[in-house]
Design brief:
The chain is an alpha+beta fold. It has two domains: 2-134; 142-279, Glutaredoxin, CATH 3.40.30.10. The chain has helices at residues 14-32, 34-37, 127-135, 157-165, 184-194, 209-217, 253-257, 259-279, 284-296, and strands spanning 2-10, 49-52, 58-66, 70-81, 84-94, 102-109, 112-113, 116-120, 138-140, 143-145, 150-152, 173-177, 203-207, 230-233, 250-251. It has an eight-stranded antiparallel sheet, sandwiched between helices. β3 and β4 (70-81) form a beta hairpin. α1 (14-32) runs antiparallel to α3.
Length: 297
């Protein structure tokens, strides 16, 4: 069952992006399964081969050239969980002759939750995802994905408004407004803590005081981001339609100021972010690469 999915583009040719991603995945696997792998780790894992351990853990690397010149790399891990298993698949793809950017796709399948068999077990944001976001400039169709919220000033608000109108993002865009009497850096860290479990799926922006005012002056009153609040925008915001405002939910300043309420709100926004991205269709290019990758396994 799908537990976590992230898709984004990086501004690197496919071979360069794969070097970063493959190093990240090997380091993650060797740290997590150091005892089972022994001192040599995954040294013997070659492209288009697998290493299977007695414990049932299996690692596979894929390297394939497709028509018309697309290069597809992949790293897959299978980890037993009782009679079931966790499967993590990471794909990097692109055309080295045509593209200066690459597609990265991450899919984690988990066993069913024993308390709710219709849902997968909860998956934390993978450490390797956080590592990738630290090492590469990751873009979800114009929206920045990172481990921490990105600060926006007035000059960047027209771009944000334009991107919020687009409907091709894979995830939610979380926007926080800053009150005039708030110290900015502690507020930014506060929002980072509130949204930490949406990393890799939702983008988070914190508007400074002037940017908050400017944003609210250029959208309808039904799409405002009040100072001290956090609002989640789904793709395709229509700032000319008052009814559209209902699609973009918010956490009020009063809720964020209450520790107990904030924790509950953080859990809600995490679940909403996860459900939205996991259920949203991926773009055609990424889907095509994933379909080709599935045939290679």
């Amino acid at each position: 069952m799908l537990a976590y999915r992230s898709s984004f583009h990086v501004s690197q040719p496919v071979e360069e992006a794969w070097r970063t991603v493959s190093s990240t995945m090997v380091n993650w696997a060797e740290r997590k399964h150091r005892k089972q792998l022994g001192p040599k780790g995954l040294y013997a894992l070659e492209p288009n081969s697998s290493i299977a351990l007695k414990s049932g853990i299996k690692f596979t690397i894929i390297d394939s050239i497709q028509q018309p010149g697309d290069r597809i790399f992949g790293f897959q891990s299978v980890e037993p969980d009782g009679d079931h298993k966790w499967t993590s698949k990471v794909l990097v793809a692109g055309n080295p002759k045509r593209d200066d950017e690459s597609v990265v796709s991450i899919i984690i399948d988990a066993p069913a939750d024993k308390h709710d068999p219709l849902r997968p077990k909860y998956a934390e944001v993978p450490r390797f995802v956080r590592s990738m976001l630290d090492q590469m400039d990751c873009d979800d169709c114009g929206i920045h994905l990172g481990n921490k919220p990105r600060q926006l000033d007035v000059a960047l608000i027209p771009t944000l408004i334009r991107e919020l109108k687009e409907d091709d993002h894979h995830g939610l865009v979380l926007v926080a407004g800053t009150p005039a009497d708030f110290p900015f850096e502690p507020w930014k860290e506060f929002i980072a803590d509130t949204t930490k479990n949406t990393v890799g799926q939702s983008a988070t922006y914190v508007l400074d005081v002037e940017a908050t005012n400017y944003f609210n002056q250029h959208v309808s009153k039904y799409h405002r981001v009040d100072p001290g609040s956090l609002r989640s925008f789904v793709p395709g915001a229509d700032f000319d339609d008052p009814l559209d405002g209902k699609r973009h939910r918010f956490i009020t300043a009063k809720t964020l100021a209450d520790d107990q309420l904030r924790k509950a709100a953080s859990s809600i926004i995490t679940r909403r972010s996860r459900a939205f991205t996991n259920s949203r269709p991926i773009d055609r290019k990424t889907r095509r690469y994933n379909e080709a990758y599935s045939q290679l396994q």
